C-alpha cells in the first residue's frame, strides 16, 4: 500500500438496510470500551461505553488530487469483493478536512495480522494451518477472477477476523491491501520440520517463471482436500497424492508435539541451577588447561 492505517469509531455506523417501520436506515453499531474492545449491540444507551462502529482508516498519502493509483485500488477492491467473502470489506471513502487527502474506510479486524499471530500459530497442528490457508486462497481467487494479482501478499496483509485461538478450528483470515506494490524477489528459508509435500508446493509458487506457478484454484483444490480428509483413515483416502500429503502432515504434527514437549522440559528449573550472580571458584583452572594442552601435544 501507499498510506497509513488508523483505527477509529464511526459514530453513526454503517448502513445495513432500510427500516420500513421506523422509516430510517438501520445501521450497524456496537459498544466500545476504553481498551477498544468491541461488542455488537443495537443500543446507544451506555454511560460507560462509547457507541458506534469500530473501523480501520487507510489514509492515502498525497491523494488530495484524485489519481489513477487511488482509483485503481478502489475499483479493484470493490470488484474483487463481489467475488469472495474472504477480502477485507471496504465500507466507503472520506476526506481529511484539513489537507483533503482521501481515506478508505474498512472493517476493523480484531485479530490483527497473520504476522502478529505467528507466535501462536506455530504451536497448532497442520489441519488448523490448512484451514487458514484455505481462506487466504479463497481471497486470492476473488482477486484473480477480475484478472488482477495482488503483487504485495505477505503475512502483514493477511488479517485474522478474530484473535487467534489455537483451540478453535475456525480461525478465518482475510486478504487486505490490494495496493500496486512491486514484488520483492526474496525467498525465505523453509524450516526443516515443514512437510516435503508442502515445501515443494511453496517452491512451485516461488518459481521465477510465472507460467510454472500453480493457479490459485489448483492450490485450493489441493489444500482443501488435505484439510477435508485430514482426520480420515488413511486407507479410506482414494487420492494417492492427498494420502501421502496427509501422512507427511501427521508426521509433522508428531514432531511438533515433540518440540513442544522439549520446550516445556527446558523451562523446568534444575534443583542445582543458579539464576543469580555468585562468585565462582576458579582455583586450579590454569593447571587443568595446562594438562589438557600437554595431552593434546
Automatic annotation (TrEMBL):
<dbReference type="InterPro" id="IPR000719">
    <property type="entry name" value="Prot_kinase_dom"/>
</dbReference>
<protein>
    <submittedName>
        <fullName>22390_t:CDS:1</fullName>
    </submittedName>
</protein>
<dbReference type="GO" id="GO:0004672">
    <property type="term" value="F:protein kinase activity"/>
</dbReference>
<feature type="domain" description="Protein kinase">
    <location>
        <begin position="1"/>
        <end position="297"/>
    </location>
</feature>
<dbReference type="Pfam" id="PF00069">
    <property type="entry name" value="Pkinase"/>
</dbReference>
<dbReference type="InterPro" id="IPR050167">
    <property type="entry name" value="Ser_Thr_protein_kinase"/>
</dbReference>
<dbReference type="GO" id="GO:0005737">
    <property type="term" value="C:cytoplasm"/>
</dbReference>
<dbReference type="GO" id="GO:0005524">
    <property type="term" value="F:ATP binding"/>
</dbReference>
<dbReference type="InterPro" id="IPR011009">
    <property type="entry name" value="Kinase-like_dom_sf"/>
</dbReference>
<dbReference type="GO" id="GO:0007165">
    <property type="term" value="P:signal transduction"/>
</dbReference>
Amino acid at each position: 500500500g501507499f498510506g497509513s492505517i488508523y483505527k477509529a469509531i464511526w459514530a453513526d455506523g454503517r448502513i445495513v438496510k432500510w427500516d420500513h417501520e421506523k422509516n430510517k436506515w438501520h445501521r450497524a453499531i456496537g459498544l466500545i470500551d476504553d481498551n477498544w474492545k468491541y461488542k455488537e449491540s443495537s443500543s446507544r444507551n451506555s454511560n460507560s461505553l462509547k457507541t458506534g462502529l469500530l473501523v480501520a482508516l487507510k489514509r492515502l498519502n498525497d491523494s488530495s488530487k484524485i489519481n489513477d493509483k487511488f482509483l485503481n485500488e478502489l475499483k479493484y477492491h470493490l470488484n474483487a469483493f463481489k467475488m469472495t467473502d474472504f477480502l477485507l470489506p471496504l465500507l466507503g471513502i472520506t476526506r481529511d478536512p484539513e489537507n483533503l487527502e482521501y481515506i478508505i474506510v474498512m472493517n476493523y479486524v480484531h485479530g490483527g495480522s497473520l504476522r502478529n499471530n505467528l507466535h501462536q500459530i506455530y504451536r497448532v497442528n497442520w489441519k488448523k494451518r490448512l484451514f487458514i490457508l484455505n481462506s487466504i486462497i479463497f481471497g486470492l481467487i476473488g482477486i484473480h477472477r477480475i484478472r488482477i494479482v495482488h503483487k504485495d501478499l505477505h503475512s502483514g496483509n493477511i488479517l485474522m477476523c478474530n484473535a487467534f485461538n489455537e483451540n478453535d478450528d475456525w480461525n478465518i483470515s482475510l486478504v487486505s491491501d490490494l495496493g500496486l506494490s512491486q514484488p520483492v524477489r526474496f525467498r525465505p528459508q523453509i524450516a526443516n520440520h515443514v512437510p516435503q509435500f508442502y515445501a515443494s508446493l511453496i517452491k512451485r509458487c516461488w518459481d521465477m517463471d510465472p507460467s510454472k506457478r500453480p493457479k490459485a484454484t489448483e492450490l485450493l483444490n489441493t489444500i482443501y482436500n488435505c484439510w477435508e480428509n485430514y482426520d480420515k483413515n488413511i486407507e479410506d483416502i482414494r487420492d494417492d497424492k492427498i494420502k501421502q500429503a496427509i501422512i507427511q502432515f501427521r508426521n509433522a504434527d508428531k514432531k511438533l508435539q515433540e518440540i513442544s514437549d522439549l520446550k516445556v522440559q527446558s523451562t523446568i528449573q534444575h534443583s542445582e541451577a543458579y539464576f543469580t550472580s555468585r562468585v565462582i571458584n576458579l582455583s586450579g583452572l590454569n593447571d587443568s588447561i595446562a594438562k589438557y594442552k600437554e595431552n593434546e601435544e
